[in-house]
Amino acid sequence: MARFRPHARVLVLPSIVLIGAVGAATYGALVLEELWQRLAVAGAGLLAIVLLWMLPLVRWLGTHYVVTTRRIALRGGLAVRLRQELLHSRGYDVSVRQSGLQRMFRSGDVLINTGLERPVIMRDVPRADLVQDALSELMEASTSSIATVRRTTAAQPVLRRSREGR
YdbS-like PH domain spans which residues (predicted)? Predict the structure, then answer.
């Protein structure tokens, strides 16, 4: 079983905002003379910390990806919790999408195409290529009859197109 979260790189900017908000609030509280001004600066700093640092941190901590030998479980959300489970035996396609910044940090978005209208996305996964390889191997190792039927039906249109193209 493997458990992981999105890459921690997403917390860099909120941490910089935290340092700036604490510094600005401290400076304002020391420089300003009126009590109401000091309270206003402290309140604005606290609001900035909660909105720009605490919320991204809680969101990052609340997002989990769990891969077992039987299924993939994705959990996330702040106000509304979402839990998705994908069985390896159902069969799916796995691909990785990486931006330039994600390539530098060896992370990426893992797209799992289950045959529904849109793929399930594991966003900003560390070592995305390794996750893609592991998911592909787990899906291929699944010996369910459902997976076999899905693989053959997915391959038939490709075979028909290649025969017609000759």
Answer: 60-133
